[in-house]
Amino acid sequence: MNKVITINLNGIAYQLEEDGYEALRAYLGSAAQRLEGNPDRAEIIADIEQSIGDKFRAMLGVNKTVVVTKEVRDVIADMGPVQDPSGLTDESVPGAQKAETAGAGGAAGAPPSPGEPPGTPKRLYKIRDGAMIGGVCNGIAAYLGIDVAIVRIAFGFMSFMWGTGVLLYILMMIIIPYATTSAEKAAATGIPSTAEEFIRRARAGYYGGMKTFTDKKAYREWKWQFKQDMRRHRREFRREMRQNAEHWGQRWHQYWGPAHPPGGSWFAAPFVGCMMAVVTLVCLLSFASLILTGAVFGIGLPAGVPLWAGLLFLFVFFRILKWPLAAMRHHAYYGHGYIGPFHYLWHSFAWVALLFVCLWFADHHSVAAHDALLRARHEAHNTVNVLRDWWSRQ
Amino acid sequence: MSINEKFTAIRKGLLEFLVLKIVAADKVYVADILGQLSGTEFATQEGTLYPLLSKMRREELVDYEWKESEAGPPRKYYQLTAKGREQLRETSDYWQKISGTVRSLGRDSGQTTNESAPR
Fold first, then answer.
1. What percent of chain B has pLDDT above 90?
2. Could you give the CA distance from residue A42 to residue A24 in angstroms, rounded to a whole number?
């Protein structure tokens, strides 16, 4: 996706991609510079602008309204560098040739090189938006510029090799910081935040431009142009901010608006909350039991697997177990619109049903799990008895 | 240095003469001029032609008028002025002389005068 800038060439509006716009501005800037002192400068520039406009129009149609960067560059190459005929005889020809080749591509005297803008340096961060566990994979994907799914698969694959992936993940989760501020988010994805990039470009352009002008009059004219540009940028930036603010205002109303008691959450949220509490409790219990007895509900660690791997496995297992519950709770609290209590109830039931299917599967296909379940029933029975005794003694 | 490069300056110098010739034949606009030159050794681009035409107009060799076009905004159509026609005649004569000299020089060893040139 590219930003599009609308320009006016001799009274007709054209939409250009941002880089193309920069290239065109550089070309016209260098043209104006070369025609310095030419009494017909304004007219020649107008002629050239019209000619460029004609070429753009030939490329556009009903289904194509934007001139892409490559097309702009092609048109500029087609136009050729602007040469002042009165200056031709004085200039030594090889020098003029050299200026031409420089002018055709980067446009001599145009401060920002339109080809490769030096991007902001990338840094590795955890990214929360769209994360499944801790945002580590998300951050790595953004850092390498590849799809998250690939990184996740890679981690999953590595987890099968003696749990390397899991260990790595947890280490990275501890070491790598979250991207919280907008500057950090920009560094994480490599896409510069608008304001920063704007300032950087302005600086590069401004100082670069100052160096190229020796003539006072041209410098003044350029400065005026620059100020115009700055003003326009500022206007655009403000408009963008305003639009964002409006957009977020709407979202804010959707999520936090006064009129919506989150539908059905009074019923579903406590239910989901209870389930999460149970899962957390079981998680803590199994941690304790693994550390103290070396076994969870009677299932001992397989021979050769160290204690830390077992703990890691438990941690990830419960994280995954809790994840849909957490999502459901979030939905119950922040979900917009009234869907009805049965919607959430259905979600909860579906989840419980899935859990039962898993348990049944384990019970029937694994002797150890079967034994553990039997024992767990006993344990639960015992616990309940102990609790009842304790209660009656009060 | 290739032949092409050696003659860069000469081609540039001759461009005005050729434009005079093209404009003399018919009322044309810039794309026509570029089209006629495009197949030749004198192929050029808008970046060169627009400044040249504006210089020639300032020297009152050519003049233009705006004409509506079927597609897009009106275009400038160029035509020769009386002064331009005069200039074209003088330049043509001078060109004849130069090319005569180029042809005759060195043809007969020792004989390097203009009288031996054909025509």
1. 34
2. 17
Q: Do B71 and A57 touch (CB under 8 A)?
A: yes
d(CA A385, CA A372) in angstroms, rounded, equals: 19
3-state secondary structure string, chain B?
CCHHHHCHHHHHHHHHHHHHHHHHHCCECHHHHHHHHHCCCCCCCHHHHHHHHHHHHHCCCEEEEEECCCCCCCEEEEEECHHHHHHHHHHHHHHHHHHHHHHHCCCECCECCHHHCCC
- Subunit contact A10:B73, Cβ cutoff 8 A: yes
Which one of A35, A51, A59, A84 makes the best mutation probe of the B interface by having the most chain B beta carbons within 10 Å? A51
Classify the phi-psi angles of A37: left when phi > 0, otherwise alpha if psi is within -120 to 50, otherwise beta: left
Contact B48 A82 (CB under 8 A): yes
Q: What 3-state DSSP class applies to A299?
A: strand
Name which of A15-19, A253-257, A320-324, B16-20 the model is least confident about. Answer: A253-257
Place of tokens 């020089």: B105
* Measured distance CA(B75)–CA(B69) in Å, rounded: 7
Q: Which residues contact A372 (CB under 8 A, 6 or more apart)?
A: A297, A298, A299
Q: What is the pLDDT of residues A85-101, one digit of tens each?
A: 765 443 333 333 333 33
What ipTM describes this predicted complex?
0.75
pLDDT value for A90: 39
> Do the Cβ atoms of A76 and B55 come closer than 8 Å?
no
**Hey, are the CB atoms on B55 and A54 less than 8 Å from each other?**
no
CB-CB neighbors (< 8 A) of B12 in chain A: 88, 93
Q: Which of A306, A332, A267, A324 is nearest to A133 (CA)?
A: A324
A237 three-state secondary structure? helix
Q: Which residues neighbour A4 within 8 Å (Cβ) at sequence distance 6 or greater?
A: A15, A16, A17, A18, A66
Which of A332-341, B11-20, B96-105 shows the lowest per-residue confidence on average (mean pLDDT)? A332-341
**What average pLDDT score do residues A44-68 get?**
84
A271-292 pLDDT tens trace: 677 777 788 788 888 888 887 7
Residue A105 has pLDDT above 60, yes or no: no
pLDDT of A339: 47
Residues 6+ apart with CB under 8 A from A306: none
8 Å CB contact between A29 and A110:
yes
Nearest 5°: the CA angle A362, A366, A370 is 75
Q: How far apart are the C-alpha atoms of A132 and A139, rounded to whole Å?
A: 12
Q: Which residues of B touch A86 (CB under 8 A)?
A: 55
